[in-house]
Amino acid sequence: MAGLFISFEGPDGAGKTTAIKSIVSKIEAIDSRKVVVTREPGGSKIAEEIRQIILDPQHTEMDDWTEALLYAASRRQHLTEVIKPALAADQIVLCDRYVDSSVAYQGGGRQLGTQAVAQLNDFAIQGVYPDLTLYFDLPVAVGLQRVRKIGAGFDRLEGEKLAFHERVHAAYLQLVAANPQRIKSVNAAQKPDQVAAQCFSIIQQYLVK
Ligand SMILES: Nc1ncnc2c1ncn2[C@@H]1O[C@H](COP(=O)(O)OP(=O)(O)OP(=O)(O)O)[C@@H](O)[C@H]1O
Ligand SMILES: [Mg+2]
What we know:
It holds the Pfam family Thymidylate_kin. It catalyses: dTMP + ATP = dTDP + ADP. Its EC number is 2.7.4.9. It is an enzyme of class 2 (transferase). The protein has 209 residues and is α/β, with parallel strands linked by helices. 56% of the residues lie in helices and 13% in strands. It has helices spanning 16-28, 45-55, 64-88, 99-109, 114-125, 140-148, 156-178, 192-203; strands spanning 4-9, 35-39, 92-96, 132-137, 183-187. The longest helix has 25 residues, at 64-88. Adenosine-5'-triphosphate (ATP) binds next to helix 1 and helix 8.
């Protein structure tokens, strides 16, 4: 497939969305291809409706595997409607979260098993992996602090959430170690402009001048 497919991964609050915004113009200054910024479920009615089912707070009885299957179904629809057509038109796709998020959150965080969730997603995406994945590496506590704007010290409930996020982090590190060609780590603890600059220096190698 033509085009360039880049995904952005990492914990909540790592700065993915912030970095993507400032990377677009840097890419456009070098490469004449159209840049498409998308996020899951990303501009697809069906994918969005599936996502609503997952996120509905009334669905407390949702089984963890059902959740993983619905994310995979939503991803497939987004892939088919948004990502694949853009790549076929030789465009550059910047996708805020993709398959690695499921492996990290459902596989690691929810403890369904990273291998099993990866297999489930292989079925959904049929081999359409990003050409490049930027992993925003950040200590778990820093990410949570950015999102929640809280200081040090967690109560019992937050402690449980911390354990969940520690499992997500561990699963991400496992993915980075297992896929050195595709996944590159970015130091997300730097200032926003430094994070964007590090992302761009990696992306630059994939651009057509
Ligand atoms: N490099 C940075 N240093 C400090 N704060 C940052 C940095 N990048 C982003 N932030 C701030 O941290 C918060 C989270 O950033 P952002 O929304 O970009 O994260 P995200 O990775 O997209 O998170 P999510 O996965 O929850 O969407 C925002 O308040 C943002 O302004
Ligand atoms: Mg975001």
